Amino acid sequence: MMQKGLLLNGKSVAAHVKERVAQQVHELNKKGIYPTLSVILVGDDPASAVYVRNKARASEKLGIRSETIRLDAATRETDLLDIIRSLNENDQTHGILVQLPLPKHINTDTIINAIHPDKDVDCFHPRNVGLLMLGQPYLLPCTPAGIVEILKHYQIDPSGKHTVILGRSNIVGKPLANMLVQKAPYANATVTVAHSRTQNIDALCRNADILVAALGVPEFVKADMVREGAVVIDVGINRVEDATSEKDYRLTGDVAFEAVKQKAAAITPVPGGVGPMTIAMLMQNTVVAAQHVSGLA
To answer: For the chain, how many structural domains are there in total?
Structure first.
């Protein structure tokens, strides 16, 4: 039986994934293939800039070539499409990532659809989403894949379990639901996706064996919403004002961590839980794309 309040350490799991990726990069290098990730950042959103910087650092440490294309916030959609088209045609570019959100004058769907699906390391392109839904994935969406990797590492098998996902975004909620319902190892779950229109959400959460919070609402999940012995995965990362902090803010998840960990069998912390896994799985996707684009897969 799992101990109460087990911390699911995403940093530790991400380190294992990165070790695997580094070895795969080494093997590709011996074949003259150098996995390369191109990241496009439009505008000067501070959070986006941090994410892009972290991706570049992770790439460098693993031997993955990384370039960041920084564009002004006023960049025209047509100019961005031209850059994507050029990267699509470049055989030396294996992965393309456009950092979201984009400025309002640029249509996000148009940009996502323009990325060649073979190089779509975010797994946002409709072709890759469709393959995921059919249980025939080429690449896996980074954050959902990171969640499943944590479950695998700690041998928490969702098979037959009721998994409640709070949030229906295209980045986390919907793709994670698609992954967990498949006839596959560390899947086969009974999945409920709840959102802002869901009625009796507290009672629904209390019925969950595995509860995933991906709403973007600080400490939305309270202790009385979690049943004893549930596994709680907190995807949220929110800045909240805190006058006692040197930065005048602190980071918190979508779960009231201190109270919920007293009831949960296992729980991810924020920071240090799901966050590190997202970048680790992006690195994994870049290697898979390099193998595929180079004709090895």
So the answer is: 2
Q: Which residue has the tokens 């440490």?
A: 61
Instruction: Assess whether 105 and 156 both reside in one domain.
Output: no
Report pTM.
0.95
**Distance between CA atoms of residues 67 and 143, nearest Å:** 22
Could you list the active site residues? 55, 99, 122
Q: CA 178 to CA 200: how far, in whole Å?
A: 23
Using alpha carbons, list the distances in angstroms from residue 257 to 70, 205, 267.
36, 15, 8
- Name the residue range of residue 85's domain: 32-117
Q: Under a CB-based contact definition with an 8 Å cutoff, are residues 252 and 270 in contact? A: yes
Tens-place pLDDT, residues 160-196? 999 999 999 999 999 999 999 999 999 999 999 999 9
CB 131 within 8 Å of CB 74: no
